[in-house]
Write a structure and sequence with these properties.
28% of the residues lie in helices and 26% in strands. The chain is globular and about 35 Å long. By secondary structure, it is α+β, with helices and mostly antiparallel strands. A five-stranded antiparallel β-sheet has the order 4-3-2-1-5, with no helix packed on it. Strand 2 and strand 3 form a beta hairpin.
Protein backbone atom coordinates (compact mmCIF):
# COMPACT_ATOMS: atom_id res chain seq x y z
CA UNK A 1 0.00 0.00 0.00
CA UNK A 2 1.30 3.44 -0.90
CA UNK A 3 1.24 6.52 1.23
CA UNK A 4 -2.11 8.27 1.16
CA UNK A 5 -0.33 11.42 0.02
CA UNK A 6 0.38 9.64 -3.31
CA UNK A 7 -3.32 8.97 -3.95
CA UNK A 8 -4.98 11.36 -6.38
CA UNK A 9 -8.61 12.05 -7.27
CA UNK A 10 -9.87 9.36 -9.62
CA UNK A 11 -7.37 6.69 -8.55
CA UNK A 12 -8.68 3.21 -7.93
CA UNK A 13 -8.50 1.63 -4.50
CA UNK A 14 -9.04 -2.13 -4.23
CA UNK A 15 -9.61 -4.59 -1.40
CA UNK A 16 -9.26 -8.33 -1.21
CA UNK A 17 -11.46 -9.00 1.84
CA UNK A 18 -9.27 -11.63 3.45
CA UNK A 19 -11.26 -12.06 6.65
CA UNK A 20 -14.59 -13.68 7.39
CA UNK A 21 -15.12 -11.35 10.36
CA UNK A 22 -18.26 -9.74 8.97
CA UNK A 23 -21.13 -10.25 6.56
CA UNK A 24 -19.44 -7.82 4.17
CA UNK A 25 -16.18 -9.77 4.13
CA UNK A 26 -18.15 -12.98 3.58
CA UNK A 27 -19.60 -11.48 0.38
CA UNK A 28 -16.19 -10.16 -0.68
CA UNK A 29 -14.71 -13.65 -0.36
CA UNK A 30 -17.65 -15.10 -2.28
CA UNK A 31 -16.98 -12.61 -5.09
CA UNK A 32 -13.29 -13.48 -5.06
CA UNK A 33 -14.12 -17.16 -5.40
CA UNK A 34 -16.67 -16.59 -8.19
CA UNK A 35 -14.41 -14.26 -10.20
CA UNK A 36 -11.21 -16.18 -9.43
CA UNK A 37 -9.58 -12.92 -8.43
CA UNK A 38 -7.46 -11.82 -5.51
CA UNK A 39 -9.63 -8.69 -5.26
CA UNK A 40 -13.32 -8.24 -4.66
CA UNK A 41 -14.10 -4.56 -4.15
CA UNK A 42 -13.08 -1.35 -5.86
CA UNK A 43 -13.74 2.30 -5.21
CA UNK A 44 -12.79 5.66 -6.65
CA UNK A 45 -10.62 7.98 -4.55
CA UNK A 46 -11.91 11.52 -4.10
CA UNK A 47 -10.59 14.26 -1.82
CA UNK A 48 -13.49 16.21 -0.36
CA UNK A 49 -12.51 19.27 1.66
CA UNK A 50 -9.04 17.78 2.15
CA UNK A 51 -10.31 14.38 3.38
CA UNK A 52 -9.59 11.21 1.42
CA UNK A 53 -12.95 9.65 0.62
CA UNK A 54 -14.08 6.77 -1.59
CA UNK A 55 -17.07 6.54 -3.85
CA UNK A 56 -18.17 2.92 -3.80
CA UNK A 57 -21.08 0.81 -4.91
CA UNK A 58 -22.18 -1.20 -1.90
CA UNK A 59 -25.61 -2.57 -1.12
CA UNK A 60 -28.06 -0.90 -1.13
CA UNK A 61 -26.68 2.33 -2.71
CA UNK A 62 -23.63 4.07 -4.14
CA UNK A 63 -22.11 6.01 -1.27
CA UNK A 64 -19.30 8.28 -0.18
CA UNK A 65 -17.24 7.06 2.78
CA UNK A 66 -14.01 8.11 4.46
CA UNK A 67 -11.22 5.78 3.42
CA UNK A 68 -10.36 5.37 7.11
CA UNK A 69 -13.55 3.26 7.47
CA UNK A 70 -11.90 0.51 5.42
CA UNK A 71 -9.28 -2.14 6.03
CA UNK A 72 -5.94 -2.00 4.27
CA UNK A 73 -6.26 -1.43 0.54
CA UNK A 74 -4.15 -1.38 -2.60
CA UNK A 75 -3.76 1.75 -4.71
CA UNK A 76 -3.82 1.86 -8.50
CA UNK A 77 -2.91 5.25 -10.00
CA UNK A 78 -5.28 6.00 -12.88
CA UNK A 79 -3.74 9.29 -14.08
CA UNK A 80 -7.15 10.69 -15.01
CA UNK A 81 -7.78 14.28 -15.93
CA UNK A 82 -9.86 15.29 -12.91
CA UNK A 83 -12.38 18.00 -13.74
CA UNK A 84 -15.49 19.62 -12.37
CA UNK A 85 -17.42 17.24 -14.63
CA UNK A 86 -15.77 14.30 -12.84
CA UNK A 87 -17.05 15.60 -9.53
CA UNK A 88 -20.52 16.29 -10.96
CA UNK A 89 -20.73 12.72 -12.22
CA UNK A 90 -19.81 11.30 -8.83
CA UNK A 91 -22.31 13.54 -7.06
CA UNK A 92 -24.99 12.40 -9.52
CA UNK A 93 -24.41 8.69 -8.82
CA UNK A 94 -24.33 9.04 -5.02
CA UNK A 95 -27.45 7.49 -3.57
CA UNK A 96 -28.28 5.49 -6.70
CA UNK A 97 -29.56 1.99 -5.90
CA UNK A 98 -27.02 -0.82 -6.06
CA UNK A 99 -27.55 -4.50 -5.39
CA UNK A 100 -26.55 -8.03 -6.30
CA UNK A 101 -28.13 -7.88 -9.76
CA UNK A 102 -26.24 -4.67 -10.55
CA UNK A 103 -22.98 -6.38 -9.57
CA UNK A 104 -23.85 -9.41 -11.71
CA UNK A 105 -24.70 -7.23 -14.73
CA UNK A 106 -21.41 -5.37 -14.33
CA UNK A 107 -19.49 -8.65 -14.11
CA UNK A 108 -21.19 -9.82 -17.31
CA UNK A 109 -20.46 -6.49 -19.04
CA UNK A 110 -24.16 -5.64 -19.36
CA UNK A 111 -25.62 -2.17 -18.98
CA UNK A 112 -29.05 -1.30 -17.71
Amino acid sequence: MKSRSEIKNGDMLIWSGDKFSSKSNFYLNLIRTFTRSEYAHTATAWYVEGRLMVVEATQPVVRLNPVRDHDEFFHIPMNVGWTGESEEFLVDVLGCPYGFMDALRAYLGKTV
